[in-house]
Amino acid sequence: MQVSTGVHGPGRAEIEERTLRTDRWWLTPLATFLVFSAFVVYATIRAFMGRDYFAEPYLSPFYSPCLGDCVDGASDFGQPFQWWPLSAALIILIFPLGFRMTCYYYRKAYYRAFWLSPPACAVAEPHGKYTGETRLPLILQNTHRYFWYAAVVVAVILTFDVFLAFRAMPDEYAIGDGETSGVHMGLGTVLMAINVALIWLYTLSCHSCRHIVGGRLRHFSKHPVRYRLWTWVSKLNASHPKYAWYSLFSVALADLYIYLLAADVIDDLRFF
Known about the structure:
Helix content: 40-55%
Shape: globular
Number of domains: 1
Largest sheet: 2 strands, antiparallel
Number of strands: 4
Protein name: Succinate dehydrogenase
Keywords: Membrane, Transmembrane, Transmembrane helix
Strand order of the largest sheet: 1-2
Number of helices: 9
Radius of gyration: 23 Å
Order of helices and strands: HEEHHHHEEHHHH
């Protein structure tokens, strides 16, 4: 006899209705589907463009670090992949993308919005069986902890880019009457700084980070430093979903602003 799985599995409530909820439960998965789809389309187009990603002193977060055949001034770590025939963004984006796609929160979000597994709490999923993350391709979700280490490296590099964004361009050093300034600050600098702050909050509030700093300990009392870190990360973890979405918007906005500058569509709003 074949045992039913999914919503008709043993121990599940024998309710034939898809849901008894009367609220507009479908709004959240629909909004997630639309927003996430828009970001995927935008990021894919920008990643494959291979141009308009550097407007001195700003480098798009989609192309940082620029390790391929990059425009002058965009490579602060050399071009070891200069032979790469495609866009330089495709060399580096796999790491932040892999981190986000395997993120515990994002899994919940896109499982519900794209696979309807399940679409919402107390709403039956349409699938006949459930195998979880035990086979390909979903078993690859277990690589999340390793992508976290790569995401930290990327966040450090993006932080370095922010410091470089404060660096004045050569023709900006002379500001009149013999005075010089080595500092540049424009709207691009602000957007890049906000983006990096949100990326760090998203990365450090990750469930994997919480386990790394405080996991596998028998006694917190014998590890006071790790306990303090675990407590701090646990507080951040409560807002992990917000940081996930805020950082998604900020990285797209920073890239869009730099793209418009590089394409000569707009001029940078300079503060000093």
